[in-house]
Design a protein that fits this description.
The protein has about 400 residues and is of the alpha+beta class. About 40% of the residues lie in helices and about 20% in strands. The chain is globular. The two termini are about 40 Å apart. One of its GO terms (biological process) is osmosensory signaling via phosphorelay pathway. One of its GO terms (cellular component) is membrane. Its main location: membrane.
């Protein structure tokens, strides 16, 4: 099977069907001389309903993402594999300029392959393979086989991003470590108190690098699965129980307290429980970091869970639009110093940190980027509302099924 395109298999299935139904597939030759020599395959008539239905019966047996298009590129049928893999994105794929250009140049028996990238609602890389097939009586269709290559695309981008981001962000702690090592070897070689002080700072810089690498790896894992919709069900009560347990070590003996307010009998929603917990943990950790910079203020963090429509959310919208149906909203609030409005739209950018804050000094700038990618995977929504001197509210909304 080496060297075969997936669309070769699809065309082969159509050919087998043609043998039993009187169809024929013409590849790379003109029609018989009895037909109009000036006929243009691009203007071929749409296939009859009977011929199309028989072809669909055969093609639906193939475990691949298959489309049947008319000569103009209109979708006549989408197989179950195509619906399962691409869903509502099928129209955007066929309308993509690269696909339209390939279809316009496609003549009978020709085949073409194009790569395209869809940026909304999440980035997806798609490889489409087209072949025009004659099914007799002057009728032709285009068979399209779609491959989701998003994971390969994510791996390649991850490699490039990792080198760029890691080399930039690791430069500062590495420079600090190098400087302290030179000092310990030189002026502080015989100064034990200075050695202990410098070793403490060096340990902090090493921990910062470890946090950065951990966050980069987590972000890479989230991006690689972003194009695949989660198949599980998330119980809000179970999520809150896990968040309460996992935040206990962060809160014990510290300046921050967590107050949870959850409505009763909330329904489950489609999602990945681990990722939803990760979103809430990132938001709570940020609230602790920002609030702990105010030495004269006890940090009070609230976690409120309700069933709501996205229209009820307030603040700057920095996540995907989740539509109008109901969902579950998790709101994480704090009484910290707040964030100026000019920073809010950029908070989910990688390595973006607000100058002059505790998080600017200790954070990686990746926590909210991870949050946004997880929300996009769930077709959710993120809004941020902040008032300087009063605090910040992050509201995450996940849609219910249906």
């Amino acid at each position: 099977m080496a060297g075969l395109w997936p669309e070769d298999v699809v065309a082969g299935m159509a050919l087998l069907a043609a043998g039993g139904m009187g169809w024929r597939m013409v590849a790379g030759r003109r029609r018989a001389a009895t037909e109009d020599p000036g006929s243009d395959p691009a203007r071929a008539a749409p296939p009859s309903a009977d011929a199309l239905s028989r072809m669909i019966e055969v093609l639906d047996l193939v475990p691949a993402a298959i489309l049947v298009l008319d000569a103009g590129g209109r979708i006549l049928h989408a197989g179950p594999g195509a619906w399962e893999l691409f869903g509502d994105s099928l129209g955007a794929i066929v309308r993509h300029p690269a696909a339209q250009s390939a279809l316009l140049r496609l003549h009978e028996g020709d085949r073409a392959e194009v790569d395209m990238v869809l940026d909304v609602p999440v980035r997806r890389a798609v490889r489409a393979q087209f072949r025009r097939v004659d099914i007799g009586r002057g009728e032709s269709v285009v068979l399209a086989t779609l491959l989701d290559v998003s994971e390969q695309d994510a791996v390649e981008r991850m490699r490039t991003d990792f080198v760029a981001y890691a080399s930039h962000e690791l430069r500062t702690p590495l420079a600090a470590l190098t400087g302290f090592i030179e000092t310990l070897r030189g002026p502080a070689a015989d100064d034990p108190p200075a050695q202990q002080r410098f070793l403490g700072v060096m340990a902090g810089q090493a921990a910062r690098m470890q946090r950065l690498l951990d966050r980069l790896l987590m972000l890479s894992r989230v991006q690689m699965s972003e194009h695949r919709k989660p198949r599980g069900q998330v119980n809000p009560a179970a999520v809150i129980a896990r968040v309460r347990d996992e935040t206990a070590p962060l809160l014990d003996g510290g300046p921050a307290t967590l107050h949870i307010d959850m409505a009763d009998d909330l329904p489950s929603f489609p999602g990945d429980s681990d990722q939803v917990v990760q979103v809430l943990l990132n938001l709570i950790e940020n609230a602790i970091k920002y609030g702990s910079g105010e030495s004269d203020r006890a940090v009070r963090i609230g976690l409120r869970v309700r069933q709501a429509a996205p229209s009820a959310m307030v603040g700057v919208d920095v996540g995907a639009t989740g539509g109008a149906r109901n969902g579950i909203a998790f709101a994480v609030t704090d009484n910290g110093p707040g964030i100026e409005a000019r920073h809010l739209p950029r908070l989910t950018e990688r390595f973006y940190r607000v100058e002059g804050t505790a998080a600017r000094r200790t954070g990686t700038g990746l926590g909210l980027a991870i949050v946004k990618h997880i929300i996009d995977r769930h077709d959710g929504r993120l809004t941020i509302d902040s008032v300087v001197g009063r605090g910040t509210a992050f509201t995450v909304w996940f849609p219910l099924a249906g």
